[in-house]
Amino acid sequence: MVRTRLVTTPLWSQEHLVSALAQIGFTKVESHRAPVPLMSWRGKPLGPSATIVIRRGQIGASGDDFGFVRNSSGSYDAVISEIHFGRFDRRWLEDLRRRHDALTQAAGLKPPAELRSDYQKHELDEPPPIDSGSGRASSNDPQGRHSTASQHSDATRARTTTAHVLDDLRTKQKKADGPGCVLALIGPVLLWIVVSSAVSELQSVGGFLLVVMPLWTALLILRVVQMARRAQKAGRELMSRLPSSAQARATAQEFLEAKVKPAGAKAEDALVKELLKALREPGK
Fold it and tell me: Are residues 29 and 86 in the same domain?
């Protein structure tokens, strides 16, 4: 279960809230008349709904959907999942408010009379503590509440850490694949041109394949080996940064398994697959 929170804000104009979000980089914002479900990073409903929605694809690899829903006083409540508690905090919301207010004032609009501005927080669907004797929820077990909160904290940290390590690994692989791939393709061809100019027997398709194909094969194998080594190093780094609980490691594995072949993808992501393998077999 993903913890979510409602935060009351002084934002009240749907049109200008969408425009304010665009100013800070969220240009693909969904605006609905009726609330629609927010989705988790797993592609499953978070529970709460919103009328203004920023989908997780704009937020990051480990993100859940984020949105706003109108409350009874006429303003909007921000709907924030646990993974985003630190990102979409009061400072971020106050900056958004300043942009929203500047836009509404420029349009000559006035806010509702009973507008709330206290940024009050309300937890949604907070998981009940578990009674150690019966295995059932208990409302007066501080130790159980602490244990449940700790598990959620470990899972959140694990998901964020795994996403950061994966993003860093992809960046390094992309840099390696840039000029390296071009040289790997052109280098053997240039070598064949030089050699065939001196050896006339190689000035044919057969000669081209004889010189170029073994080099291409060797370079491809080298790339696969280097990618596996980068993934192993990233896997060791991930293990060192993860919380020590079994829940954290299970969450990291689940996150990577969902990324190996995302919904709609035609092929598996070899880099994610290697990192998942390194996480499962840290000693190798």
Answer: yes
Mean pLDDT value across the chain: 80
Distance CA 218, CA 211 (A): 12
Q: Tell me if 137 is assigned to some domain.
A: no
Q: What's the pLDDT tens digit per position in 230-249?
A: 888 888 888 888 887 777 88
Q: Which of 188, 138, 280, 169 is nearest to 147 (CA)?
A: 138
The DSSP element (H or E) to which 53 belongs, if any, is: strand 45-54
| pLDDT given at position 9 | 93
- CA distances 256 to 12, 19, 86, 227, 267, Å, are 39, 34, 23, 16, 15
Which residue, 78, 109, 124, sits at the end of a domain?
124
187 DSSP 8-state letter: H
Domain co-membership, 82 together with 8: yes
177 and 253 part of one domain: yes
Which residues have a Cβ under 8 Å from the Cβ of 64 and sit 6 or more positions away? 2, 38, 39, 40, 41, 46, 56, 81, 83, 84
Q: How many distinct structural domains can be found in the chain?
A: 2
Q: In one letter, which amino acid is 115?
A: L
Residue 185, domain extent: 154-280
Tell me, yes or no, whether 114 lies in a domain.
yes
Angle between helices 90-106 and 14-23 (to 10 degrees): 120
Asked if 100 and 178 sit in the same domain, the reply is no
How far apart (Å, rounded) are the C-alpha atoms in residues 212 and 79? 57
**Among candidate residues 108, 124, 140, the one where a domain is terminated:** 124
Residue 271: C-alpha distances to residues 171, 177, 192, 256 (Å): 11, 12, 32, 10
Angstrom distance (rounded) from CA 177 to CA 181: 5
